[in-house]
Amino acid sequence: MKHILWILFVLGAFKVSAQSTPVFNGKQMIYVSTIAAWDFTARPAGWYRIGKISGGYRGNATFELREDADHSTVRFQIGVNFNNKGGSSFTLTSHSYYDAPTFTKLRLLTRNTYDDVFLEVFVDPHNNNGFPFYNYLIDPLANGDWEVLNWTLGAIPTGYNVAEYNLNKLLSVGNILNNNILTVGRDGNVGIGTASPNAMLAVNGNIRAKEVKVETANWPDYVFAKNYELPSLQSTEQHIKDKGHLPGIPSGADVQANGVNLGEMNAKLLQKIEELTLYLIDMKKDATVQKEQSNQQINLLKKDVEKLKTKNK
């Protein structure tokens, strides 16, 4: 009897319905799948299936997921066309929550041209026991478009490809081939080609621009100050022998691990150029002095030779 009541409770927890409005060409534009009370025992943290495109047709619509405990709300658009990877699209447009995100990741399951497409979300229910969950499907305009599913347990069918997206962002754009083409994190960091930007702008790839202006302080004009201590060439030579790189310049291993600060590196390189200029000036002075001394010695020798010639006559 308990098992029967449990089955009735689970079945009663699901509700899939179409809103009364709006309607376009006789087709409902909003559908919702509701779980009246999320149960931790029956539904622990894990993947849950929320959408499907039957027969691998084309689907392009908006999903909005909500829950009433931590007040998580995430909205995204996702499109697939006959399982074509390059022609797919994903855009996370909004994600808000009170204390911690309930909907953390999304994955799109695809296979061959006319195979079904599945959409699953990773749910971390934490404090949602007994609270309702909602899955809204908005504007599925095409026939054979996305259909909303009732939070069934997720699984990757045999032979299916998986594209996974991080939902804990302010904005994210991607497709099947490139999961995170553009992301904006909650810290304001922007990533292109990376899901985890560790700077205000992190690019995993090449950048091409007509001009780049880098602002930097402490430009090394101090090298030409009278009190600047110019390193000796002997000490520089010894540093190169010991370390394998110029003093004040990062090693190749350090650059490979941490990258290069363009402004700082340009300043360091200019410092070395200015030091080299001072070395050349000093060498020029030494060469001039040596030349004058040599000329004096030559002139003295010439005089001595003339004296000898005169004496031997």
Write the layout of secondary structure elements.
Layout: H1 2-13, E1 14-18, E2 23-24, E3 27-28, E4 30-35, E5 46-53, E6 58-67, E7 73-81, E8 89-96, E9 103-110, E10 117-123, E11 133-138, E12 147-153, E13 161-166, E14 171-174, E15 182-184, E16 190-192, E17 201-203, H2 233-243, H3 252-258, H4 262-311
Parallel strand pairs: 16-17
Antiparallel strand pairs: 1-4, 2-3, 4-11, 5-10, 5-12, 6-7, 6-11, 7-8, 8-14, 9-10, 9-13, 14-15, 15-16
What does it look like?
It is built from 4 helices and 17 strands. The strands form 3 sheets. Strands 1-4-11-6-7-8-14-15-16-17 form a 10-stranded mixed beta sheet. A 5-stranded antiparallel beta sheet has the order 12-5-10-9-13, with no helix packed on it. A two-stranded antiparallel ribbon has the order 2-3. With 313 residues, the protein is α+β, with helices and mostly antiparallel strands. A hairpin with a 5-residue loop joins strand 15 (182-184) and strand 16. The protein folds into 2 domains: 7-203, no CATH class; 220-228 and 230-311, no CATH class. The protein has helices at 2-13, 233-243, 252-258, 262-311; strands at 14-18, 23-24, 27-28, 30-35, 46-53, 58-67, 73-81, 89-96, 103-110, 117-123, 133-138, 147-153, 161-166, 171-174, 182-184, 190-192, 201-203.
Please identify the structural class as seen in this structure.
alpha+beta
Please outline the major beta sheet.
Answer: 10 strands, mixed
Q: What's the number of extended β-strand segments?
A: 17
Order of helices and strands: HEEEEEEEEEEEEEEEEEHHH
Strand content: 25-35%
- Number of helix segments? 4
Distance between the termini: 144 Å
